[in-house]
Structure formats: C-alpha cells, structure tokens
Amino acid sequence: MExxxxxxxxxxxxxxxxxxxxxxxxxxxxxxxxxLTAPLAVSKTVKLLVFLVWMAGGLYLLYRLSxxxxxxxxxxxISSDKxxxxxxxxxxxxxxxxxxxxxxxxxxxxxxxxxxxKMRDGTRTSLVISDFFHGGQSLHFAAMVTxxxxxxxxxxxxxxxxxTLREKTLFEKPISTVLLGPFAALMxxxxxxxxxxxxxxxSFFSAWGIFSAYLVAWIAARERRNEK
Length: 228
Description:
Blueprint: E1 3-10, H1 12-37, H2 44-69, E2 71-78, E3 82-87, E4 92-97, E5 101-109, E6 112-119, E7 124-130, H3 138-159, E8 165-166, H4 174-195, H5 203-220, H6 222-226
Parallel strand pairs: 5-8
Antiparallel strand pairs: 1-2, 2-3, 3-4, 5-6, 6-7
Helix pairs in contact: 1-2, 4-5
C-alpha cells in the first residue's frame, strides 16, 4: 500500500539568497531615499512616514518574492520498501530504499518542519517545509513522517535489517535545558538593563524573539525529552 503526500517544499538555499539580497537592496534603497530627501525642507514626521512606508512595502515585496521563488512542488510517495521524492518543478525523482536509511530526524522550529535522512553510504537527504511562506502543511508533514516511521519499522521487522535510529533534535536532548538557564538569565539582565537605560538597542527585541522561539520549541519537545 502506498501513501502519497503533496507539499510545497522550501529550498533553503534559494530562500537564504533571496532574504540576504532583498535586505541588502532594502537597506540600499533606504539610504538612497534618505540621501534624496536630505536637501528637501521636510519635517521629521514626513521622513519617518516615508521610512515606514518604504520598510513596510519592501518587506511585503520581499515576502511575496520569497514565497514565490523558494517553494518547490513535490509529491512524496511512501511504499512498503522505498521513499520516492518527485519534484515536479525541477522534473527530478529520487528513490530511497527504506532499508538504506540508518537514521532520521524530524525537527520543528518556529514555522519550519525538517526531516533529515541519513543513508548507509553516508549521503543525506532533507525535506523542509515552511508554514510561514507556504502555510497549512505542518499536520500533513507530521502525517508523512508517521507513515515513514511505520513503513521503516515494518521493513525492519520483515527483513531483519539493522535498526534505524530516530535521532533526537537539540530540544529533545538534556543540553537544551542546560542552555535554557543561562539564556533566561541573559534575558533577565537585558530587560533590567533596558529598564534602567544602561543598554538600549534594537537587538533587545530580536533577542526576546529568539528566546521566545527557543522556549516554545523547548516546551513542545518535553514529551520526547522525557523519553528514555
């Protein structure tokens, strides 16, 4: 029996290139706008309005471009003995024998789901989806991972192959709890410093965003972390 799953996979190399290039162009454009408006007799309020409009429009355009060009349509087929990844946009098809998989890891961080497969010959394959750019796929992706786990377990049972290991993610390991303490302490200090104006920086809000994402992922992985 075959299980088929259709996804818009995220090409992380394309996405990184789009984000870096887009942000550089956005900053260059912002500097250009500032230079052009400097000789003009405009108030700070108008300049701020121009800045906000430019940033909002630029970020939205960057989001739309990243959404359009970083996605790759793919049909994943899981049968009793193999995994087939057919990428329709690229016109490629990759077949992986389940018996050749030595380890796999399914991790979720922020809006990304990542499945990493490690083969006996040392090669690796990754499948990535981003709910931020191509939403509504997380539950479907989890179902695909479950189907793969079931097929791999059955393949091992029937053929007595060496055990395929499920590798733990960072948040499923005790080290994630060890790191959480210093991270939380740092955030407390940064908050105290911000309140007492000892340190003012936009990185304060970025740090809180990163810490919040870390904490959410740490909490989500608690059941796996407690498994022996």
